[in-house]
Amino acid sequence: MNILVTGGAGFIGSHTLIELYAAGHTAVVIDNLSNSNPVALKRVAEIIGIKNIPFYKVDIRDREGLEKVFEEHQFDACIHFAGLKAVGESVEKPWEYYDNNIGGTLTLLDVMRKHGCKNIIFSSSATVYGDPAEIPITENCPKGQCTNPYGWTKSMLEQVLMDMQKADPEWNVVLLRYFNPVGAHPSGRIGENPNGIPNNLMPYITQVAVGKRKELGVFGNDYDTPDGTGVRDYIHVVDLADAHVCALKALERKCGLGIFNVGTGHGYSVLDMVKVFIRVNRVDVPYSIKPRRAGDIATCYCNPSKAESELGWKAKYGIEEMVRDSWNWQRQNPEGYNEE
Ligand code: NAD
Ligand code: UD1
Question: What is the pLDDT of residues 124-162, one digit of tens each?
């Protein structure tokens, strides 16, 4: 299939490109580079062994720019990663998040249907479950109250896509609810490259390990969990990328609407992550206990069996590969892509 990959220069998009080509697909990337670096695409092309990945610096809110891309290419499906994702920033700048994520997606969907491309995989998030009503979380678990505008953009866009698919069954829509993506391509050539101070646990750990930050703050040790720290379902980004390749097969089968959790089904605490990182990578990660972070929940992990039975997808990598590959990327690229 020929796939439009929005946000393809980002963390998950860049890894997904590699799996797409490995499965025999081709891709065209659009990205406004607001949170990414074109060096990522150069390195992706190197890993795949092609001259370059077709790329347009286009914002998904730019209807004319999108039209041009659709006039130049015929797409079988779109994998839609483009979006802003910083939770704290979304609380400060709600309009910017609703405009970028919701406004941008509405424009993209309109241009897609005008050009007869009605197959989409959407990057959703475990955040749509809010404080989950059941653990492990299945797809039947009711959606919850999001604690921030970022989360609401995901929840609302899921609704938009479901309503559009219902009104026009020519649409095939797969909503992938990612749990906590970490790790990097095993080559260490591409990985997560956050701007400024990382919000998420794994890039913070790797930046402490490489000496860019003094110590990790562990946000709370008084949760109702085995060691008191937050428990999450970390998933290797290469496994997550592979879930998109499996979801494309569902689109080809004309699946209508499909909603899937994408996680391993295992929960690890913050201190588990730190300890495994230190043991596997033989590098120190100083930390201290800090107050809880507003909006955090105690425990979040999924039951991923629906993705296995309906998509034929299952995570292959465990926690040791996740911490190994995160460190391999950070160690080789202490300044991320900024060095090139
Ligand atoms: P990322 O920031 O690395 O990638 C997103 C890409 O989209 C970036 O390259 C950015 O420049 C681009 N982009 C943003 N707004 C755009 C616009 N208006 N037009 C064109 N390009 C635009 O993030 P990621 O971690 O790769 O996440 C990809 C998707 O998955 C996002 O939608 C995110 O919300 C979702 N998601 C991520 C996580 C996570 O922990 N990383 C978890 C759940 C869901
Ligand atoms: C966060 C977002 C969520 C988003 C997800 C993936 C919040 C409230 N939620 O989820 O909407 O979908 O990222 O991008 O921000 N931790 C520390 N110290 C740190 C960083 C994190 O102790 O410096 C802890 C957190 O308290 C949590 C765990 O590590 O228990 C994981 O945190 P994080 O990586 O930010 O992911 P989530 O909170 O699950």
Answer: 999 999 999 999 999 999 999 999 999 999 999 999 999
> Which residues are designated catalytic?
150
Please indicate whether residue 200, judged by its CB atom, sits closer than 6 Å to ligand 2.
yes
The torsion angles phi and psi of 154, rounded to 5 degrees, stand at -70, -45
- Residue 125 Cβ inside 6 Å of ligand 2? The answer reads yes
Beta strands in the chain (DSSP E): 2-6, 26-30, 55-56, 77-80, 119-125, 172-178, 180-182, 216-219, 231-232, 234-236, 257-262, 268-269, 287-290, 299-300
- Minimum-distance ligand to the CA of 297? 2
Write down the pTM of the prediction: 0.98
Q: Cα–Cα distance between 270 and 272 in angstroms, integer?
A: 5
For 31-49, how does the pLDDT look when each residue is reduced to its tens digit (9 = 90+)?
A: 999 999 999 999 999 999 9
Which helix (DSSP H) or strand (DSSP E) does residue 263 occupy?
Answer: none
